[in-house]
Amino acid sequence: MSTILLVDDEPEFLDLYTEILELMDHRVVQAHDGHEALKLAHVRRPDLVVTDWQMPRMSGVELCQQLIQDAELSGIPIIMHSAEQDPHAPGVTAFLSKCSTLSRFEEVVNQALTDSSENPQGPPSGPSVKELSATSRDTLWKQSRACGLLH
């Protein structure tokens, strides 16, 4: 079981991604911004960081810079997710659009863990939307509608 530090300032996305990662059999540590994430990374030593790009106090880009400059944390793979087009940040292992499907999210998480010598978790087919709570299904539906409007 891997420990994943999930960083997002939007509570509904934290809840949705936490539920998905827990269905994949990961432990999840949540942070609401980069500042909180950096403190938690030192304490919890996550196997992977999944961070939003735009957040208050310390953005995902600033968090990535801090992680790669820290000798104790520099080897942790980082996935950046954003509604923006690939924002590029130092040390990012993979970029994931917030408009990505659940299966793409699982694929990117598993690949990042595999590439860092961690064992991927979760069923090969990924978590099913039916397995999610009503709140997470609602968030996913709203996200899908918003992404549809963007394209």
TrEMBL record:
Residues 113-136 are annotated as: Disordered. Keywords: Phosphoprotein. GO terms for biological process: phosphorelay signal transduction system. Residues 3-113 form the Response regulatory domain. The keyword Phosphoprotein applies. It comes from the Bacteria. InterPro entries: Bact_response_regulator, CheY-like_superfamily, Sig_transdc_resp-reg_receiver. SMART domains: REC. The modification 4-aspartylphosphate is found at residue 52. This is Phosphate regulon response regulator PhoB. It comes from Melittangium boletus DSM 14713.
